[in-house]
């Protein structure tokens, strides 16, 4: 890695520690609550809230994980069709959720990469889920995540009128505080978000980090080069490591 790359990584690690240190612990507030965890793609629920989910399930609290897309477009592959990749990721999702103690897993069937165009239909679907499941807290991706599906799910989840909502960062958690890939027009708002001294919330991963690790390890298609193809797109090990720290963090949405 270049010197500049190493400096960006070090700044990210420092930023994550600082955010977690100054966050308010909401473990007690969330204890015993019925949770609905909304994920754009299979794996976001685990990276963003895996330990929180495992903690809630260990205490007997109801948790439903609803995944908007099947993740069919996470990589190009000559060996695996998009439908094959979707089947694989569905299997990984169920294995990961089992590791976290969750059996209530819903796949909403929206196209991977297509949530922005389907925001109204997604909002309608989520409104129905809130009505049927009656969650006390909805966990949703934060709008600072650079992926358009994450932003679209954030917006739809709020437009659907959640009871109480907490946003969890995925891409933004890894890319802050520098946001090297962000569009210049977004950067000032992202820097302001990363610099906010108040408003951060945290839940320690504690003894539930082991279940989170097990759930992460179910996602081999996302964390390894599964087929060995040079074009197989997968997550950087430093990305994965950023989510296996002592806390998960949230902000009120
Ligand atoms: Zn995602």
TrEMBL record:
Cytoplasm found in the keyword field: no
Keywords on record: Zinc
GO MF, one example: hydrolase activity, acting on carbon-nitrogen (but not peptide) bonds, in linear amides
Keyword field contains Cell inner membrane: no
Entry-linked InterPro entries: GlcNAc_PI_deacetylase-related, LmbE-like_dom_sf
Transmembrane segments: none
GO aspect biological process, one term: glycoside metabolic process
Gene3D superfamilies attached to this UniProt entry: LmbE-like (3.40.50.10320)
PANTHER family, alphabetized: BLR3841 PROTEIN (PTHR12993:SF29), N-ACETYLGLUCOSAMINYL-PHOSPHATIDYLINOSITOL DE-N-ACETYLASE-RELATED (PTHR12993)
Entry protein name: LmbE family N-acetylglucosaminyl deacetylase
Organism, scientific name: Catenuloplanes atrovinosus
Source species taxonomy: Bacteria, Bacillati, Actinomycetota, Actinomycetes, Micromonosporales
